[in-house]
Amino acid sequence: MTLQQLLSFLASRSIAGAAENLKEYTIGVEALGRKSDFDPKIDPIVRVQSHRLRVKLKEYYEVEGKHDPILIQIPKGHYLPTFEVVSSVQARTESIGSEIVASDPLLADGDGGRHHQTASPRSVERNQGVAKRWTRPQAIFLVAMLAVFSVAGYWLGRLRSNSPSESAFTAVSASTSHDRKPHDSAELFWWKFLDNDMSPVIGYPDAVFLLDDSNDLFRFRHGASDNRGAVVDPHLARQFASNSKLVGLAGPLYYENGYTGTGELESIAMLSGLLNRIGAKPIIKASRDITPDDLDRHNVILLGSPFQNVAVAQLLTAGDFSFRNPDERHEQWRAQIIDTHPADGDKAVYTTERDASTRMLTTDYSLITLTSGVTQGRRIAFLGGLDTKGTQGATMFATSSSGVEQIEKALAPASSNRENPTAFQALVRVRLAKGYQVLGSDLVAVRPLVPADASLVKDKPTLSRH
């Protein structure tokens, strides 16, 4: 319904002659439901949806509405629609063709779209006497005509269609390329995952540490924490820090959550590059800043293990594979991935592997999990390793065509819906050199995942800030 709501909002503003007050921020908040802190420079939803609406209107008039006497267009470079009575189908086709181009400046605008000019119902001149301008009484009739577009929901209402159409893919990506179809299995897999949400959230871990005056860090896994730089209560530090004796000798301590693993940083770069290639503009956030509203409005990709990423700890769906740390106070490469239903010959416990003499890391294990979100129609993907390099290896695997094809091949017998990615867990082995160079990743096992019934979720989860 988003495009229909957007069309109704823009049409009402156009009829009311409110062009001068219509900014991208206003559209985002009043028409698309963004919060008051909405920043168009970060979230491109208005530009994306406006371009989509422009293309969907073109599709409608080419098929369902080819005989409609009323032509509604959103001129290139503007947000407000124009309304015209068209005397011939040929003239309308020529008019529409001149308005839709492969490159749309709204999507490429770098200033947040706050200063675009907008067009009123009487602002667009036509050549050759093809159309006549709406008078105010005629324009009011448009409100009734908007009902026509609810009947034409095949074109305007199919935001969540079972499979991405070529036109829908072009709509969100025409700003940078004339041919933005998925070029390989990996791009197609993530395009299906997005399912028309072109601003997914990527959440990276921001584990909490205690920082002393010598710039040494002490891990702080439990207990209430404060904002970065705030002074830590000595009692809390000794009670919840992993090494309470050493913390007691450290002097004044301060909360610090400004560190994340190099593997997660590499993962952000890989994911952002792939998502950009298919026209998406991800929103990158620290895990503690992800809100229930993010889960409601976006598909989410969470990086890291539940030991480092609080959002993963709270949202990761239980399946055959799970993370476990036998000793909460001594995490250093002791964490495990447990297989509750190992096949014959498979291990039940997977841990990082180290060289016997040098103790250098040689192998990590990671999980790729894709499941439904807390809101119907949304999805969450988890890419996390026992070590930060495991996360990087999992992301390399999940963004490669060979990796995606291996997962899909393993899932083929259990997949009943070929239009969207099947919920699953994939266990991946990550090979390392020098302890930090990812040489490659190998698929160990894939298991279909049956997510919890969304109808049983009475309330949206409240993500802990600490």
How many helices? The count is 16
What is the domain total for the residues?
Answer: 3
Question: What does the main sheet amount to?
Answer: 8 strands, mixed
CA(first)-CA(last) distance? 36 Å
Number of strand elements: 17
Helix content: 25-40%
The overall average pLDDT, rounded, is 76
- Beta fraction: 15-25%
The poorly predicted ranges are 89-93, 99-179, 451-466
Report the principal-axis shape: globular
What Rg do the Cα atoms give? 26 Å
Secondary structure category:
alpha+beta
Task: Give me a quick take on this structure.
The chain has 466 residues and is of the alpha+beta class. It is 33% helix and 19% strand.
How would you explain this protein's 3D organization?
The chain is α+β, with helices and mostly antiparallel strands and 466 residues long. It is built from 16 helices and 17 strands. It has helices spanning 2-15, 24-31, 45-62, 89-99, 105-108, 136-151, 153-156, 166-173, 185-194, 234-240, 244-248, 262-277, 292-297, 310-315, 388-398, 401-411; strands at 70-73, 82-86, 131-133, 201-204, 209-212, 217-219, 253-256, 283-286, 300-303, 321-324, 336-339, 349-351, 353-354, 361-372, 379-385, 424-433, 437-448. The strands form 4 sheets. Strands 4, 8, 9, 13, 14, 15, 16 and 17 form an 8-stranded mixed sheet that branches. The protein folds into 3 domains: 2-181, no CATH class; 209-256, no CATH class; 260-456, no CATH class. α9 (185-194) packs across α16 and α12 (262-277) packs parallel to α15 (388-398). The model is unreliable at 89-93, 99-179 and 451-466 (pLDDT under 50). It is globular, with a radius of gyration of 26 Å. A hairpin with an 8-residue loop joins β1 (70-73) and β2 (82-86).
